[in-house]
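Q&A log
Question type: sequence-to-structure
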Amino acid sequence: MSSPAALRRSPLALLVVLFLGLCFTGTAYAALQPAVPPGTSSSTVSPEDIEAGKQLFLGNCATCHGTNGQGVDPIGPSLVGVGAASVDFQVSTGRMPLPAPQVQADRNASQVQFSEEQITQLAGYIDSLGPGPDVPSEEWLDLENADIAAGGASYRTNCAMCHNSSGTGGALTRGKYAPTLMGVEAQHIYEAMVTGPQSMPVFNDQNLPPQEKENIIAFLKNIEEGGNSYGGAGIGSYGPAGDALFVWTIGIGSLIALAVWIGRKAA
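Response status: OK
Response body:
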């Protein structure tokens, strides 16, 4: 019979230890991970709703995106793998269905063509074609545990270069623009971060955790409520660009007028 010391020296001993360690770590992570209520996805929508979503898709979206969501080049991209969050963002904001070919789909509440139930059905069907980001759960939208200061720091690092330091949007290249984030629902801001619509990059949970996303949303809502005004004229909350325009047109103009006046008095 082999002694315990001989078993420890066996080449298989290290593999056994690694296997047990991985099993223990995975089990502990699954047990300690906080439960997050699921948002809309193919796993949370009934088969009947998915079928209803398919019929909505065939009647309203298939012309541009293909009968199986595979896309129609160059009209519409593939929807396989975009997830329920992308569908909810595009359809709930009136961006899709696109009324006419244009450089960028605009947010337009008056263009929303489906009810909340129909949007959920459509999102569930698209998600069933290939898994993607889910519609966020209420846990990350209630802003109860959000840190506004941390959200401001994350926003300035990841978002301000396009959406302006005050969230009012800005110009991009080739006729596109970063839209204003004022008056946008928390759910749609979150969905935009996880799906990266149009020119926007994707901020998945690895490079921007859900808590940081919630912090950013809280920072933007704080601006909406006037939390970014610290006295003086707001100048439309356009940030440094607005301040510079004011100083250049009013301040420099006043100095020129003063210099002209002094010159005439001296003459």
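Response note: The CA atoms of residues 1 and 196 lie 62 Å apart.
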